[in-house]
């Protein structure tokens, strides 16, 4: 059986990127991305529920993220999940977290855009690494057409 660990997100940064370096000198950029899930509440009204994800970007891409991204900017992330565990410094026991290790980050919109500016055909569309970009746009499905 094959193991697959793949994550694709499109969302907005909740804070400015933070750059640091590993002891070996590799740049690491930390991003926090918000992605909304839509669901119906008890009254049947559609509401957005934000989900927040920690993302780490390494190498030259980390430096580019720090230079060109800022809070509120839309981004596309293609990467993998990474689970880690450590002992808390206050002695309260073990801690654990799941983060996303980005393999590619696509800058969406334009500087200063807080939304998904650019629209179809602008060249700012997110395409996962290794995927061919389609020239035709897909029609948006109505929320009621989704089977779950």
Instruction: Tell me the CATH superfamily of one domain.
Output: Nucleic acid-binding proteins
N-to-C span:
27 Å
Q: Please count the helical segments.
A: 1
**How is the CATH topology of one domain named?**
OB fold (Dihydrolipoamide Acetyltransferase, E2P)
- DSSP strand content: 35-45%
Mean pLDDT: 81
- The secondary-structure element order is EEEEHEE
Low-confidence stretches: 114-141
Strands ordered across the widest β-sheet: 1-3-4-6-5
CATH architectural type of one domain: Beta Barrel
Question: What structural class is derived from the secondary structure elements?
Answer: mainly beta
CA-atom Rg in angstroms: 18 Å
CATH top-level class of one domain: Mainly Beta
Range of helix content:
under 10%
The number of strands is: 6
Described by the principal axes of the CA atoms, the overall outline is: globular
Tell me the major beta sheet. Answer: 5 strands, mixed, barrel
Structure explained in plain terms:
With 148 residues, the chain is mostly beta strands. The protein contains 1 helix and 6 strands; from the N terminus they run ββββαββ. The chain has a domain at 7-108: OB fold (Dihydrolipoamide Acetyltransferase, E2P), CATH 2.40.50. Strand 3 (27-40) and strand 4 (46-58) form a beta hairpin. 16% of the residues are buried.
Please outline what is shown here:
The protein is mainly beta. The chain has one helix spanning 60-68; strands spanning 7-13, 18-21, 27-40, 46-58, 74-87, 94-107.
Considering the chains and any ligands shown, give keywords for the structure:
single chain, globular, 5-stranded mixed β-barrel, 6 strands, 45% strand, 148 residues, 1 helix
